[in-house]
């Protein structure tokens, strides 16, 4: 097998169960070394945004959002946004290597299944990004899931999010619009993004979902 990230050839050591069990073996897409660069979020986290921290108290960022929104979000993130994840995102999104989605599709799909949502809404990318990159990186991570594309982007902002500083990000005006609000009325909505950074993106999207009559809104990202 050849690792999708470092291109080195590697062997998978089969476990006793895999040798004896009459089920298809799951072949890994990346080598042990590359896999070990990603850190799953576990242990104590902020109960609202899933930020890894020493206590289980609501973090400062979430207290900031609580003052600005009348509802509470509950976010789940799978991995830390560490160097390996930043490098992965760069190659997947900015270099547009669509194969790399496969490294995390199983984990993201399983995470969506545990969320008991009625409607799964991916955070959209702008027309411009779509033309340049050719795909929405969030949709790429969610193969086999029935998605509701009821959020669209307004012209201007979402594209430059990664090049802004923290203060600029928090000030970003609503970058989304509702395309088919009727799909959200009375539903438990799950918003999915690739990375949760300041929460700005998710809170904008969640507000629109509540405006459309969503019963509840939770969110999920690959990294935090
Ligand atoms: Zn590797
Ligand atoms: Zn928090």
List keywords for this structure.
224 residues, binds zinc ion, single chain, alpha/beta, four-stranded parallel sheet, 9 helices, Rossmann fold, 6 strands, 2 domains, 32% helix, two-stranded antiparallel sheet
Walk me through what this model shows:
With 224 residues, the chain is an alpha/beta fold. It folds into 2 domains: 1-36, no CATH class; 40-223, Rossmann fold (3-Layer(aba) Sandwich). Helix content is 32%, strand content 14%. The chain has helices at residues 16-20, 32-35, 60-68, 83-94, 102-113, 127-133, 137-140, 166-171, 200-211, and strands at residues 75-79, 119-122, 151-153, 176-178, 188-195, 216-223. It is globular. The model has no long low-confidence stretch (mean pLDDT 92). Bound molecules: zinc ion (2 copies).
In short:
The chain is α/β, with parallel strands linked by helices.
Write the layout of secondary structure elements.
Blueprint: H1 16-20, H2 32-35, H3 60-68, E1 75-79, H4 83-94, H5 102-113, E2 119-122, H6 127-133, H7 137-140, E3 151-153, H8 166-171, E4 176-178, E5 188-195, H9 200-211, E6 216-223
Parallel strand pairs: 1-6, 2-5, 5-6
Antiparallel strand pairs: 3-4
Residues 46, 48-49, 51, 58-59, 61-62 line the site of one zinc ion.
């Amino acid at each position: 097998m050849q690792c999708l990230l470092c291109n080195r050839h590697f062997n998978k050591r089969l476990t006793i169960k895999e040798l004896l069990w009459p089920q298809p073996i799951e072949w890994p897409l990346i080598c042990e070394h590359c896999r070990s660069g990603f850190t799953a979020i576990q242990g104590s986290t902020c109960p609202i945004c899933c930020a890894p921290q020493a206590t289980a108290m609501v973090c400062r960022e979430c207290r900031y959002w609580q003052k600005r929104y009348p509802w509470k979000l509950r976010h789940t993130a799978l991995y830390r946004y560490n160097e390996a994840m930043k490098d992965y995102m760069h190659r997947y999104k900015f270099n547009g290597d669509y194969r790399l989605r496969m490294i995390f599709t199983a984990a993201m799909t399983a995470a969506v299944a545990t969320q008991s949502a009625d409607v799964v809404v991916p955070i959209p990318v702008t027309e411009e990004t779509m033309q340049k990159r050719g795909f929405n990186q969030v949709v790429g991570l969610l193969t086999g899931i029935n998605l509701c594309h009821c959020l669209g982007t307004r012209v201007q902002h979402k594209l430059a999010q990664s090049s802004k500083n923290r203060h600029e990000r928090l000030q970003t005006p609503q970058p989304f619009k509702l395309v088919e609000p009727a799909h959200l009325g009375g539903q438990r909505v799950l918003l999915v993004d690739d990375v949760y950074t300041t929460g700005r993106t998710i809170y904008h999207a969640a507000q629109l979902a509540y405006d459309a009559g969503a019963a509840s809104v939770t969110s999920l990202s690959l990294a935090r």
